[in-house]
Amino acid sequence: MEKLRRVLSGQDDEEQGLTSQVLDSSTLSFSTRVKWFAICFASGIVCSILGTAMLWLPGAGTKLFAVFYTLGNIAALASTCFLMGPVKQLKKMFEPTRLIVTIVMLVSYIFSVFENNEA
């Protein structure tokens, strides 16, 4: 359990140097990280469900769907930043094995919001 707490709090042995020193001075406690993870993840789920419900609205339903669903996905993705830290999250997202998926995901988010707002 202690190893899990170290990994989730960003105190893993992989991070060395100035970045880890800056992050160590501004870390949150483990219980605070878990609470904000739950809040952010739950709000992401609520936004995604709300966006799906917006599909049945006449007129601007697809625009609202795109906005709320994208915000929900971003909130759910950002919730993991509370567990592992934003720098480590970004490093893992942009690893060579995940780079293509990350780029496709980010481009999809951008196109889903801006393409529906121009129509």
Automatic annotation (TrEMBL):
Main location (coarse class): membrane
InterPro entries assigned to the protein according to its UniProt record, in alphabetical order: Vesicle_transpt_Got1/SFT2 (IPR007305), Vesicle_transpt_SFT2 (IPR011691)
UniProt GO BP: protein transport; vesicle-mediated transport
Topology in membrane: Multi-pass membrane protein
Gene Ontology CC terms: cytoplasm; endomembrane system; membrane
Keyword terms: Membrane, Protein transport, Transmembrane, Transmembrane helix, Transport
Taxonomy, superkingdom: Eukaryota
Pfam family name, one: Got1
Transmembrane segments: 36-58, 64-85, 97-114
Keyword check for Membrane: yes
Subcellular location: Membrane
Keyword Zinc set for record: no
Known function: May be involved in fusion of retrograde transport vesicles derived from an endocytic compartment with the Golgi complex.
Family: Belongs to the SFT2 family.
The protein's name in its UniProt record: Vesicle transport protein
